[in-house]
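Write out structure tokens for GRAM domain-containing protein 4.
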Amino acid sequence: MDVLPKDSNRHVKVKQKSAVLNMLKRLDKIRFRGHKRDEFLDLAESPNASDTECGDEIPVKIPRTSLRENEELRDPAGPGTINMASGVQDFNRTESDRLNEIKGHLEIALLEKHFLQEELRKLREETNVETLKQELEKERQRRLELEQKISDVLKARTEELPTTQQPAKPPTQVNGTDKRSHTVCSRVQKWFYDKFGEYIEDFRFQPEENTVETEEPLSARRLTENMRRLKRGAKPVTNFVKNLSALSDWYSVYTSAIAFIIYMNAVWHGWAIPMFLFLAILRLSLNYLIARGWRIQWSIVPEVSEPIEPPKEDLTVSEKFQLVLDVAQKAQNLFGKMADILEKIKNLFMWVQPEITQKLYIVLWAAFIASCLLPYRIIGLAMGLYAGIKFFLIDFIFKRCPRLRAKYDTPYIIWTNLPTDPQLKERSNATVSRRLQTAASRSYVGSNAPTGVNKDEDSSRFHTTKRGNFHEIFNLSENERPLTACENGWRCCLINRDRKMPTDYIRNGVLYVTENYLCFESSKSGSSKRNKVIKLTDITDIQKYKVLSVLPGSGMGIAVSTPSTQKPLVFGAMVHRDEAFETISSQHAKITSASSNSES
């Protein structure tokens, strides 16, 4: 009686394991499409399965067994239980391992299902695009059919119009000539519509297409190529301007004399416009001959052929940086000149300088009155003669005599005296600062200034920085003040290589030079300990310094050596480095020479 429960439990375990085997087989059919599991030999014969093949209706191949094995499996209490136990020992993994494997297979199957759904969605979107294209093509066909119908209706109406406009006549008066005239009119109208109908359709309004231009990425090769293209494109214009200036400067005396005589004769006889048109035709004819291979040089100033540098394919980092700096400098100067011209014209018409704009105002009124009273032939003759004399004679004299030009050349005086916007801003700031200084000096002199103090000493006491009085910040005497070359100081950063802390290694601030000291004011708020004061007589060496060797050029720093520092102090990132170096070195030489003379 005790054996039966054990055998029944063993039979249940065998059934559970066989069910697990069947589940694994189905999962392998779902998951593995290339490499099959080695545990199940019948999976090699099964075809590729998908997610839809995981139903209960999937046939599972049962391995062929002998009659004895079937009987042993059928009767677990019989003698075949020992063979079944040996077969089950091949799968002696725990149930938790099998469950984990089943979970892994399920996750893989779900992932494949997700990927298949994404592919199906993409395919559906593509099919939607195709359907949309088909519907669009159908709509186009319908539109063409409607346009054809409209054109047919219009033709029919044009053919019916003559018949409706003719008065009703008795049938006895209609003869063959009337029918012929009716057919001829309809044919003429049909021919006219067929001939000019296309031009009428061209005047149909359509919405403009907004096209966005794609911007090219920054490239050194493309940049150099565009610069050369711009130079080649502007070469004809520059050559034309050079020839005009050569005519005005009498570079070739014979050419300028002939041009002056021909121009004045043409203006006197009223042939100025035909002369300019003839010169344009002559220039185009010469360009045609040059394009055909003729060697013709029609220029007053001889052209100088510049050497063409071959483009470099591989540029280093410093060369690319130098190229960008060159282009930026040229663009800056070009934009500055254009901005100056536009701002001067704007200020001329906006009465920024009333005495200059008043002259233009009077000239415009005089020209208006003359155009109303005098005939245009006399006005054109006067303007042409003035332009010729001004271009060939007056400008030549003014260029050779600058003092006469500064006194009597009215257009030149007006143009040079017109201010730009930065100049107006500087003037307004200067006037405001002068008013503040005069008010402060008056109040100080009236209250605290002792007798016998001159203006220089008084102004030195009132020189201040952003944080207060100059001598109070650096603990100097009241006579110490910045030199005129550096009243506002130079923006820079102090690099003290003796310090190891990052906060003390680099400091941003402003550098000043006085008569006896080199003063650095830190931009960070705090005590005056962060400021640096160096006596000029203590400086042993001053040199230009390059902080980053990778960058091109001579650098933007100044190295100052003193006995108290092991390594030189570096004032880097100075925009006006050369100006600061000259000022400091000249003042240092002046102080050292004065001290050596006093000692001797």
